[in-house]
Amino acid sequence: MRSLSLVLIAAALASCVTGAPQQLARSDRAEAHLQKLIAGKVAGKPISCLPSGRSENMIIVDDNTVFYRAGSQLFRQDFQNGRCTGLGSGHFALVTRQFGGSLCRGDIAKVLDTASGVTVGGCVVGDFVPYSPIR
Question: CA nearest 39: which of 101, 126, 132?
Fold first, then answer.
């Protein structure tokens, strides 16, 4: 009986281990929205923290990706290891806690159901890729 328990525990732990993160499928609508946002812009080198004051104007593409607008510049942020489930559906909001005034890679974001006020999930903030107009 003890060996059966150990086998079940090992199987359960093995199911929790994942390989490299898979690229999550994006809907045609979300892909069109993303392409429209980056049209005429060039991507820069990823940064780990969004400069202070630039995280207020968020544009949700889908559960995987959000942009932050700062004037003519956009900062693309893809969530680490996947998605913030439900974020792109329209009735959820992303709530972040910023330490020191900056939103940074590794910060935890919560997904809030705006109808009930209940937190329904969470995700980890990734790097920010700046997109600037082509000059």
Answer: 132
Residue 85 tokens read as 């489930």
One-letter amino acid at 9 equals I
Query: What are the structural domain ranges in the chain?
Result: 41-135
Strand-pair partners of 80: 124
Collect all residues with Cβ–Cβ distance below 8 Å to 121 and sequence separation of at least 6.
84, 85, 86, 110, 111
Tell me the C-alpha to C-alpha distance, in Å, between residue 89 and each of 35, 84, 94, 118, 122: 19, 11, 12, 16, 15
**What pTM did the predictor assign?**
0.75
Work out the end-to-end distance of the chain between its first and last CA atoms, rounded to an integer number of angstroms. Answer: 70
Number of Cβ within a 10 Å radius of residue 130: 20
Strands 103-104 and 92-96: unpaired
pLDDT in tens, 23-77: 468 889 999 999 999 999 999 999 999 876 666 688 999 989 999 998 888 999 9
Helices (H), 17-131: 28-38
